[in-house]
Amino acid sequence: MKRKKKFKQKRKTSSYSKLSLFQKPGMKFFKACPLSGKNAPVIDYKNVKMLKKYISETGRILPSRVTSVSQKKQKELSRAIKRARVLALL
Amino acid sequence: MNCYEHTLITRQDSPEDENKKLVKKYEKIIKDNSGEIIKTEEWGLRNLTRRINNNKKGYYFHIKFEGVGKTIEELEKIENIDEKLIRFLTVKVKKHDLTSFFGEKKEGLKK
């Protein structure tokens, strides 16, 4: 069982590193959204630690094409960041 | 009844007793205007990320309450005039989340 698990992990990492024109069909192109799915962190204006990952050094909101956050979650995220800015938390 | 979260920031130079009086005053306003307080959190003195009206630090208070539209109308009407406050924010939420993101470290140190 242990061997099987290791094998799966290896394949996941390799599919990202070998992105090329000649890759096999059915390979993953995009990362999954880090904010949706099970065990995802709550998007909230009080959760400053989490929000800090999604802003640049100068405090601007990072685009979803960089962070691969889904559209729905990006909307929630930007709203939360703007709320945190009002309270001078970010 | 709707669920609301309200955060206040008071000036750093005002003493702690006065801050607590101020929060109690606003809690009373909520109660008088058909509101119901569920929880009040004290986040304490925090650094502001940028200056607001020449203030570098602020004392944060967080109130979770249930109320109607008129409760907030009255609350913000009085807060707008108050000079002791730096900022305030009201957010409507679907359900109250009682986990606190702030002040957890302090509790750990005390133990």
Summarize the structure.
The complex is a heterodimer of chains A (about 90) and B (about 110). With about 90 residues, chain A is mainly α. Chain A is built from four helices and no strands.
Percent helix of chain A: 40-55%
Cα separation of the termini of chain B: 38 Å
Oligomer: heterodimer
* Average pLDDT metric of chain B: 86
Which band does the percent of strand residues of chain A land in? under 5%
The count of strands of chain B amounts to 4
Q: Which geometry of chain A do the CA atoms define?
A: elongated
Question: Count the strands of chain A?
Answer: 0
What's the alpha carbon Rg of chain A, rounded to whole Å? 17 Å
Largest interface: A-B, 13 and 15 residues
Instruction: Supply the number of helical segments of chain A.
Output: 4
What does this structure look like?
The complex is a heterodimer of chains A (90) and B (111). Chain A is an all-alpha fold. Chain A has helices spanning 2-17, 48-51, 64-67, 71-86. The radius of gyration of chain A is 17 Å and the shape is elongated. Mean pLDDT of chain A is 79; it is low at 9-15. With 111 residues, chain B is of the alpha+beta class. In chain B, strands 2-3-1-4 form a four-stranded antiparallel β-sheet. The longest helix of chain B is centred in the first third of the chain and has 17 residues, at 16-32. At the A-B interface, loops of A face strand 2, strand 3 and strand 4 of B.
